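FW: tagging you since you asked about this chain on Friday. Here's the raw sequence from the shared folder, copied in full. Didn't touch anything.
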Amino acid sequence: MFPNAFRYEAPTSVDEAIRLMTEYGYDGKVLAGGQSLLPMMKLRIAAPAVLIDINNVDDLRGWREVDGTLRIGAMTRHAELEHSAELREQFPLLSRTARWIADPLIRNRGTIGGSLVHADPASDWGTAMMALHAEVEVRSPEKSRRIPIDEFFVDTFATSLEENELAIAVHLPAPAGPVAARYMKLERKAGDFAIAGLAVHIGLGGDGLVCDAGIGICACGPIPLRATKAEAALIGQPLTDETISAASKLVPEDADPTDDLRGSAVYKRDLLRIFASRALREIAEELHGKVGIQ
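HL: got it, structure written out here
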């Protein structure tokens, strides 16, 4: 099928993009990577009267350090984060997550900002941003603000963005010490939506105890979720077999899966427990080598 007729705008600055969003209101739709929007338009699930293409806004690309955070522009492509060697030491979860997103064609075009704003409950980036305690920077004609990732997703395909707000960047707090991460996901086939997935980000202090724990849950609720109980169980603890076993069992308690064609809720909860155990054991081995703990 072909999409409905639409007007095309291609702003070259953030201010111009926001002006166009304000001018067209609900008739306008922002085009970032287009990997979700364009298929919806072809099927006429979405039929915007105006397409506001922000691919020419250079200020939305790349990353830099800002006030103790890593600021990633909303138009940064999945593939750029997948292959960035400079980010792997402090933010290993970025490359580990990006490599799980769909296929190379989509990773070359899709953007981190577009993925987050789409707000799919099976969003890989939404899950990873939960684990990284991210904030989404947004701008409107009146103000700029940062939205904590826990407040950004409000329902399936719905965010807390206001009508004239444009997501322009993601901010990640810089770790204080050595970190390690894993992203685990089960799919029916390569590139399919997840049956269940888990993002785990762990940082250790100089004493070898967990000082930073982030665990995001994918495709097991109406939005990407946080394993709050498991995170709390890890803070201040060594990554021993006992700690890992206890935390892994807590992860499914913060999930809200449903029975569907991909599996039962019971099956998905058990997947999360297994993913958590595997991820934490691998992370423990990696981190203990970094800080010299036997």
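FW: The first helix runs from residue 14 to 24.
HL: agreed, and Residues 79 and 107 are 5 Å apart (CA to CA).
FW: great, closing this out.
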